[in-house]
Records
---
Amino acid sequence: MSKIVADSIRLGKPIIAVSVQYRLNVFALGNGGGPPNLALRDQELALQWVQDHISGFGGDPDMITLAGESAGAIYCHAHLVANARVRQVILSSGSLFLSSPQPWHLVASFRDKVTANLKDLDQTLDLETASASQVVEAVRRSGVQSFFLEWEEPFNAWHTKTGSAERLLLSDVTKEGAIYQAGVWATDPSDIATAFDASEQYGDELKKLYHVYPDRPSSCKNGALDFINDYKYLLPIQCLEKSFKDARKPVFRCLIDEANPWQPSSGAHHAIDLVLLFGGFDLSFSPSAERVGQAMREAWIKFISGEEPWPEATEKYYGFGPHGSLKTLEDWEIQSRRRIGLAEKLSEMESSFLDKTSRGLAAGKVSLLN
């Protein structure tokens, strides 16, 4: 994060960046005999430390911004609805809508499967005595993806809570569904159609909206990825934006559409925003990517400093890319970059049915090998 800190000093708006380590996967959850959500509590402890001590580093405990991308955004949204003592929040490519809090019985089932698999490896093993490699193997054998959060009281009505934060910055990329691409493309088209049918009364309409036809494999698989993108990323952002506007709190929305500079044909995929924002790689070979990354850092710094991140920020979305373009967006431009109309149609359907399709398409298919 040194580049964004250096840029903040150059702009005369110095910030202090703090990154946090926390427990992951099965260790991120409770065991039923103690507090739940241990990863969340690790983060709460770190946040409390920052509030208690950041003034000693020249920081302001009343000006804390909490920011996260993907899984980090899920946790940041959780802190938001739990009234974390932060002034503002940045959610990039994720929210609780992506992985909502789960009931204890599902968490317990996951722990039990992992523990049973450890016993298969060695009867003397449990989660406290197994090595890291043994736990990884036990999790792999379970065939179950980990949960990020288990349900507890602060998550009541989380869908519409805006917490105590005063401002919110939301960002997404063009192809959020890219992390599911390898898994979806390995799925038989008939199984994709079956997953859409799981939405029961909405199945036929969804298949028509997303061009899911088993005899057209490419269209079918692209439609599945588009549905995941719209239901798990785009629609949640629309909901969060509305909740903050209804609460009369400033909310800023931007679209990150600058393609991967090493392989532009892959587009602006999930996590490319981190490459651009933090500048951890030498992007001098791609002037457009460098230009977008610089502009993103300046916008983030302005937001963190309590300013509006771009012109007409509360009225207009902002586009970072493609091809190095930087501009406020008119409604027709937003419609051409995101499937806003389809997201609105999804918002009119019962989420409990859409969740069935989402699970059928996405469960177990996340991969960074895309």
---
Amino acid sequence: MKAVVSRRAGAGTEVLEIADVDAPARPGPGQVTIEVTSFPVHPGDLQAVAAARPDSAGPVIAGAEATGVVVEAGPGVALTAGMRVTTFLIDGAWRQQITVDADRVVAVPDLLSDQVAAQMLINPVTVLMLRRAAQQHVSVGFDGVVLNNAAASAVGRLFTAGSAHHQIATISIVRSDDRADQLKQLFPEVPVISTQAPDWPDRIRAAAGGRPIPVALDPIGGVGSGDLLSLLSPGGSLVVYGLMAPEAIPLHAATLVHHDLALRGLNIGRWPLAPVEQRRSDLASATAIAQGLSAHFDVAAWYPLEEIRAAAAHVDRPGKVGTVLVTMDGTSR
């Protein structure tokens, strides 16, 4: 049985490989076994591959999200063999078959395409977590404006679309004029600021038009996070939910103290710790997002399993739009 593995920490373009692994155990109570048909390659997947870890006895299977078909269900599970499903936040999702707890599995609606099904959980649930974090500030949804950094990313675009639906004002921030032009076509009512312009902070303040900026959402970190902090209104929060920048965030305590600012991290890996009612609601909402905003689930490219290193390289390609997907059947699309 094939799986994507790494035998040491390092860049996905260098250490990911295809290996034969044992078949998963048969499902026990509350579990299902899934025949994986495709999976997305998220930046966080590659960060996990690159992270230092203790030597292990064997290869580590990569990936946290996959979609496929149920082949067997254990006792007490409503899902049945033959159902299209997707699963996420599991260890070692990138393999031909996986056995997982059914509470991490969602049935795929019949009319949902494979390309949407393959990416319908991690990104939408991240968007839901970000919206909850933003709405902790009472002005969000009223006169407050949320800064959405890396707004051309898959999560960034979903956040913009969802915010418009919930009447949350946002300003999109991107790193190039080309990206800005793309977003203006998608969301003509949402201000877009490119950091290519030397005066981009002033342009953001002008776009806010005197309204408070209580929250900035940032998947990058590093020096740019300091710039975002400087744009927040007193009492505002910078929410960092990614690690794309290699450098640390330059921050003096005085920045937080004098302006009553907060810096917090948000990690989807902690989502399983949420109350069960919240998790059920999030999975239902993620499915609704996938159905209602399917036009924003773009695919950057499909790769066959054997080209996993090329897929990893594509994730960081400048100008990429959408999510990189990998098929298990050895074909590209």
